[in-house]
Amino acid sequence: HKEDNGDIYARGSQDMKCVGIQYMEAIKKLKSEKKTFIRTIHLSYNPEEELSGVLGMKKFVHMPEFKNLNVGYALDEGYANPTEKFNLFYGERMVWRFFVRCSGQPGHGSQFLPNTAGEKLRKVINSFLTFRAEEENKLKENPDLKLGDVTTLNLTLLQGGVQFNVVPAELSVGFDVRVAITEDLVELENKFKRFCAEAGEGVTLDFVLKYQNAGKTCVEDGQCHWWDAFAKACADENVCLEKSVFPAATDSKYLRMKGIPALGFSPMNHTPILLHDHNEYLNESIFLRGIDIYCTIISALANVAETNIYVD
């Protein structure tokens, strides 16, 4: 649905139907202008990104078809910025998901049983949510930090119990953690394991998902031909960039793990962040300007002469 002021309401209008269409429209425009470049431009549309890309990009980057593309540089998604500026992401936090399972003495609900799973679970939750509060305070107390600069942790799952009058032998809690790229991963994991040990015997931490640091893409002027080309194209379009670490997860990590530099960029300024939200929309003028911005950026990147070395 489009309002009279040009606001287009649609699921995916910000994430990521907009960018997918803008890519195609930009290529269509460049082809109609009979532009030629020294590099090949590939558009990639992959499934499963919302589920961590396990069946999509994660598999694709290990296939011979991907290697044969000889990818030198990549663009992926960003998100909206309500100000005049445009968000630019050069890295992303690592996703950790795990269960902490607490086993203890089962029995009848009328008793004061010792060493119960519930008591251990309370200690586990208190420790992890204290860590959460500490990270939140870092963000609140330092105006120079953004969400992607700290580690977020959220309790997202609780499992266990049979019926009201039975004390269960096991209770589990699931946490979703987005680890800042500045964290010492070994130290952080040891801290989480210590939380479990402090809760008592029979408390284990089992990872469901555990990504390692994929690194970050150079965004320093004069340090990389790719970045210089991207930055100049943005300047030519009067695009003022706000650089940061992406706070959530994208398919860019799989490219960076392969040694391929990737940037997260969606040309949406003057737009409230509404991805996955009610009344998600993108204004028509912002959308159309994004096509022109991509034409300039894609043209610049496709003419970078720097030789690509594929990292296997």
UniProtKB/TrEMBL annotation:
Record keyword Zinc present: yes
Listed GO biological process terms: amino acid metabolic process
Domain spans labelled Peptidase M20 dimerisation: 90-200
GO molecular function terms listed in the Swiss-Prot or TrEMBL record: aminoacylase activity; metal ion binding
Pfam family, one: Peptidase_M20
Residues bound to Zn(2+) 1: D15, E77
Main localization category: cytoplasm
Top EC category: hydrolase
Active site: E49 (proton acceptor)
Compartment(s) of residence: Cytoplasm
Sorted UniProt keywords: Cytoplasm, Hydrolase, Metal-binding, Zinc
Cofactor field: Zn(2+)
Family note: Belongs to the peptidase M20A family.
Protein name according to UniProt: N-acyl-aliphatic-L-amino acid amidohydrolase
